[in-house]
Amino acid sequence: xxxxxxxxxxxxxxxxxxxxxxxxxxxxxxxxxxxxxxxxxxxxxxxxxxxxxxxxxxxxxxxxxxxxxxxxxxxxxxxxxxxxxxxxxxxxxxxxxxxxxxxxxxxxxxxxxxxxxxxxxxxxxxxxxxxxxxxxxxxxxxxxxxxxxxxxxxxxxxxxxxxxxxxxxxxxxxxxxxxxxxxxxxxxxxxxxxxxxxxxxxxxxxxxxxxxxxxxxxxxxxxxxxxxxxxxxxxxxxxxxxxxxxxxxxxxxxxxxxxxxxxxxxxxxxxxxxxxxxxxxxxxxxxxxxxxxxxxxxxxxxxxxxxxxxxxxxxxxxxxx
Length: 321
Hints:
By secondary structure, this protein is of the alpha/beta class. 40% of the residues lie in helices and 14% in strands. β3, α4 and β4 (95-100) form a beta-alpha-beta unit.
């Protein structure tokens, strides 16, 4: 097993977290993955209740490794640096790759009239079932970062119930207890809080252009924090009365993973500034679950060197092989 041991300056969790999302990494990746992006097939997936999700598919002409489905984090998309880096590495190693967009992420805001929320698991399960039907391979894998890791592990926990043929699932820095994660973001570095407020508001404005009848435009201008936004949108646009019950509905802690059958693996850095590592103790015990906690890495960073190469790429190759 490869171990993550970055140079001293890159051991700072905020350096890891922030650099991984800057043009310093995005621009070289854009050049390196130009052909992968150009050849990606746009796919609209039909889910139950008329719901549609979007994704990008790169078949491999020699797919001896199988199919890898990748899920981005909250307010990320299929072209986030970690998604492109993972997809490029896996595709080059012989995997076909499908980068799935959650509702209202990437270019998908116009596909469904209702707003995204993190409890919408069934549509993700339906989308993955449709991917497996459309693109059958000998092996099928699912991997997600941050909130995408949370979704991936919840899918794994219910894969048997829905007949999903998944060989392994990997969650990278998955959201474990959303309540604690929201506290960490709001009370931690102001940079992270401003980032998510900005990204979420931007997404909501795009949605409103397609569905002005949602009617939250004036209220959105007044909301300044994630707490304010959740306290408004949860009772008005979800099935939950308050933010706390909403967060609990998609937590991985407690009994969520107790019926896990698909071999699953969590990678969570001990210094993640958003996902408290001690939440791992609150996961249900399962023989199908293995956990890896590198000392460094920040939140979905794991940059190995000053070339900004991603260790997760190599670790995923080890796990999926």
